[in-house]
Amino acid sequence: MVDRTAVPPAPAHDNPAADAWYVAPEDAGAMVFTQDGYLSLLEIYSTSSEPITDWPEPRFVER
Description:
The structure is a single chain. By secondary structure, the chain is an all-beta fold. The protein is built from no helices and 4 strands. It has a 4-stranded antiparallel β-sheet with strand order 3-2-1-4, with no helix packed on it. The relative contact order is 0.26.
């Protein structure tokens, strides 16, 4: 949890604040959501039938 008295909020923007997909494993990605200028959700997803059990390596991220 961020101490909101110590760190100012980021500028307002639409959600997801950022999204990226992975080249390995295929059909997977990550999304970042914010609320009131602070991180509220970090989600990894897959559209394949196999669930993702580990975070893929950052070197496979494409934006």
